[in-house]
Design a protein that fits this description.
- This protein is an alpha+beta fold.
- 47% of the residues lie in helices and 28% in strands.
- The chain has a four-stranded antiparallel β-sheet with strand order 2-3-1-4.
Length: 119
């Protein structure tokens, strides 16, 4: 699963930049090198940070962003939106049979997870 995360200022932005921008950028660079962060950048007005992460459990997303310096410092809050990426850079299932196969695979995984949980 991929996740689109939206980061909004909840504290003093100017103070955050003064105190934590260097740490934030170092943290972002490290997360990019480890493959956790796939894409990132601010909205044009700099009021919103947008970060895409992939291939991790939902709980791991929270663990990851709790360590982000702006969040850890109380300057930002984030929202996590699960994202099923089906098309990327011109690659993906652009036909009804391809999407039907993806949905069937998803259902099979859900059934397997339910059986593994004993539900």
């Amino acid at each position: 699963m991929w996740y689109l995360t939206l980061h909004r200022w909840s504290g003093d932005r100017e103070r955050a930049i003064e105190e934590a921008l260097g740490d934030h950028l170092a943290w972002m660079h490290h997360q990019q090198l480890t493959g956790r962060i796939l894409m990132a950048g601010p909205s044009p007005d700099r009021g919103l940070g947008i970060i895409v992460v992939g291939h991790m459990r939902r709980e791991a997303v929270d663990d990851l962003f709790r360590s982000e310096p702006f969040v850890a410092g109380g300057f930002r809050e984030y929202e996590v939106i699960p994202w099923e990426v089906h098309h990327l850079l011109g690659i993906g299932g652009f036909s009804v049979p391809a999407v039907t196969a993806m949905l069937a695979d998803e259902r099979a995984h859900q059934i397997g997870a339910t059986e593994a949980d004993g539900s």
